[in-house]
Amino acid sequence: MAPDVLLRKLTYLRQVLGDLAPYQNASLDEVILDHYKIERIFELLVVAATDILNHLLGERDLVADTYRDTYKLAADQDLLPADLAERLQNAASMRNLIVHLYERIDYKILRNSIEPALRDFEQFVALFEAQIDINPAP
Q1: What does the radius of gyration of the chain's CA atoms come to, in whole angstroms?
Q2: Is residue 135 in some structural domain?
Q3: Residue 17 domain-assigned (yes or no)
C-alpha cells in the first residue's frame, strides 16, 4: 500500500476515533439515546482498519474470510501484536452483531466497549503511523 494511501486511511481512522471520544464517559442513557451514531462509529472503525489490513495481506497474496479472521491473520503475519489482534477480533464481532442483527444489541455492552475501542484503535493507528516515513529524504 502506498504510504500516502495508508496515511489517508489512518487520518480517517483518527477522525472516526474523534467522533467516538465524546462518548468515552457516556451514561447508559446517553448511549441508548445516540446508539445509532455509536453503532455506526463502531462499524466504520472496524471496516477502515480491516481495509488497511486486507490491503497489506493482499500484498502477501493472503485473503481472510471474515472480519475477525483478518485480525487473526494479521497477527499470524506479524502485522499486529497478538494481544491487539485478539481485542480487535472482539470489535469485529461487535460490528457483525450491529450490522447483521444476529441478536438484540445489549447497550451496556456497547457502552462498555467504547473505552477499549478508543484504546485499541488508537494503538492500531499509532502502530501503522510509526511505519510511515512522512518526510522521506530526497
Answers
A1: 15
A2: no
A3: yes
Query: Which range marks the domain in which residue 52 is found?
Result: 3-129
The DSSP-derived string for 37-75 is: HHHHHHHHHHHHHHHHHHHHHHTTT---SSHHHHHHHHH
User: Which three-class secondary structure state does DSSP give residue 17?
Assistant: helix
- CATH number of the domain that residue 52 is part of: 1.20.120.580
Q: In the chain, what are the helix, strand and coil shares in percent, each to the nearest 5?
A: 75, 0, 25
If one counts the domains in the chain, the total is: 1
Tell me, what's the pLDDT at 135? 46
CA-based angle 64:47:40, to the nearest 5? Answer: 145
pLDDT reported for residue 137: 46
Percent of the chain scoring above 90 in pLDDT: 69
On whether residue 24 sits in a domain, the answer given is yes
Has residue 102 got a pLDDT over 80? Answer: no
Helix (H) or strand (E) holding 3, with range, is: helix 3-20
DSSP state of 21: G
pTM given for the model: 0.87
Does 101 reside within a domain?
A: yes
Q: What is the mean pLDDT of residues 12-33?
A: 96
